Amino acid sequence: MTVTSVTTALSLATVALALALVTTASVAATAATPPPTDGPITVVVPATSSPSPSPSSTGTRGGGGTGASGETPDDVVAGAPTCAASNADGSPTPAATPKDDARVLAVDRERLIAGEWIITRSSDFTRGEKVQIVMYPGAVVIGSFTVDAPTGFAARFRIPNETLVGQYSLEATGWASCAVANNVVTIVSGPAPTPASVVWWPYAVLGSLSLGFVSLVFAFRAQIALWFAASAASVSVR
Question: What CATH number does residue 142 fall under?
Answer without folding.
Answer: 2.60.40.1930
